[in-house]
Fold this sequence. Notes:
2 domains, 414 residues
Amino acid sequence: MKRNPKENLNFSGPSLSPGGGSGLLANFVPRRxxxxxxxxxGLLTAGYPALFMVxxxxxxxxxxxxxxxxxxxxxxxxxxxxRIIRPIVQMTRTAERLAKGDLKSRARVYGRDEVxxxxxxxxxxxxxxxxxxxxxxxxxxxxxxxxxxxxxQMDKDAAERLRVEKELRVARxxxxxxxxxxxxxxxxxxxxxxxxxxxxxxxxxxxxxxxxRVEKALEGAVKAMSLTLEIRDPYMAGHQxxxxxxxxxxxxxxxxxxxxxxxxxxxxxxxxxxxxxxPTEIMTKLGLLTKMEFKLIKDHPRVGYEIVKDxxxxxxxxxxxxxxxxxxxxxxxxxxxxxxxxxxxxxxxxVADVVESICSLRPYxxxxxxxKGLEEVRRGxxxxxxxxxxxxxxxxFRDGRFSFKKEAETALIQ
Length: 414
């Protein structure tokens, strides 16, 4: 049974007698072993002379008493020696039991001498050792429980990891299968698409070729119409082409889109096609025209519109021809349009037509030159003609980036 160290430090320990508190030496409890031996030696030393003096005349009695004293001294020495040796033996056996792991064992305290103090100190040390051992045992048990929990958690984690790895392997296999399948499908679709692309490209090439042929045929027809008019009227030779070239240059200076410039170019080549309905004698008349003759001349934009309106141009060619004699203030013909109601292409063509006409020879007057033409459109700037168009036209000639090439164009037409 575990003892309280405070109880072991109680200095009223058990008696020295073998019975634990009664007997001859019950009250003989010196605190040091050395004192006990000195007392025993002193008693024996003092008792022997006393007996010798009392019994010196009676040898027989003295011998008997001496033997009795010797026996009694031996017994006393045996008892005292046993009392001294027993705690040491008992503490030794206790230490052996402790060495074997019996922490419940304690040394018995027989007195308050050095051996008793050693026994109490030994018991206190064992108490501390048992306490530390119990704490270590509890700590070890706690660590074992924690280790067991961690082992269980690690087993769970390992099982979960194996499950996840298995699922990942299955998913990877399935993904690879789907990827292979999708790749094969995409490859087939790509082959089909490539075939369709090739077919589409061939179709586009064929359509482009047909479109080029149609456009060439259309432009040839336009040039043929222009040439027909110029054959009827020698004074018109090259006029439409020069007007078309100047109109294209003005449009480029104004940064118009290519599509609108191309439509303007074609319209310029045949802008006077309506004059084919005017009698030749009127077109080549040297004198002033009558009101009826001038009326026929003024109607040529509408006639030109009627001629080309059913041709499927990609651009508003017919309306450009119809409006190329309209003026911003409404003084033009044939419809008297005003401002923004007139197509920009028609306004460009109007300025180019006026400049080229003044520069060229006519049956009723000589050629007046480029400066006269530019002066005419400058005077009508913002009134008859669009400001931006006039400025672009004048800038082209002033910078030397455009000039009429009559001989080359006449040769081309011929």
